[in-house]
Amino acid sequence: MAYLMPTEFVTKMIDAGEAKIFMSTRDTLIRAFMAGAILALAAAFAVTINVQTGQPLVGAILFPVGFCLLYLLGFDLLTGVFTLCPLALMDKRPGVTMGGILRNWGLVFIGNFAGAMTTAVMMAIIFTFAFTVDPGTNPVAAKIGTIGEGRTVGYAAHGAAGMLTLFIRGVLCNWMVSTGVVGAMVSTSVSGKVIAMWMPIMVFFYMGFEHSIVNMFLFPSGLMLGGNFSIYDYLVWNEIPTVIGNLVGGLTFVGLTLYATHVRTAPKRKGL
Fold this sequence. Notes:
Mean pLDDT: 97
Strand content: under 5%
Radius of gyration: 19 Å
Helix content: over 70%
Oligomer: single chain
Largest sheet: none
Low-confidence stretches: none
Shape: globular
Distance between the termini: 40 Å
Number of strands: 0
Structural class: mainly alpha
């Protein structure tokens, strides 16, 4: 499990951000679509485990399988490009502009959403026998609907305090998820990458933090499965604040900190 020094893997982060900015529209969308679809399936897997075992820790331990798979396959999540792409701009890579970063973020958002929605529709078909059976008769489907209610109207019931809580959960989520993205770069072996990715993803999922792409599956699924909330509730009281929180968390606690201390390292103190 060959380990790369921080100066080495942070350079890889910058290189990755630059590559994603200049990637073709077609490839960006394909990779984002597959990332959203795989992570959504992992979320369905984890909820199923939680319901069937009654042990949320088991679901949290196994959920990272989806994250590890999608990054080993070279796919992209919005939460990851939030952290990586700005580093190429800060490092003054030739041709990198804010417009290029926003283009990448927009395309990855669309791809992730389309992938997560595709999985959501397929899982809803499975849970309801193609919408011919009441979702309430399936414990997993009922749980997904409950999650959607609690994490939309549940926040709204607390007003501004609920919105702040949602935002902070989004910040903490991408602190951990982006640490997982970095984990994929700290080793040159598959086992090393998987171990490094697994730990922070397990933490975020068990703690119930808000991940914008996981939510692209959970909340549309909840609406299809009879959840008592609206599209407005989903967008205003979850998805939009979560996206903003994910951006702040990944860039502030992972991208900027690693770049500042391992690339723009301050001069050493002089001895007394």
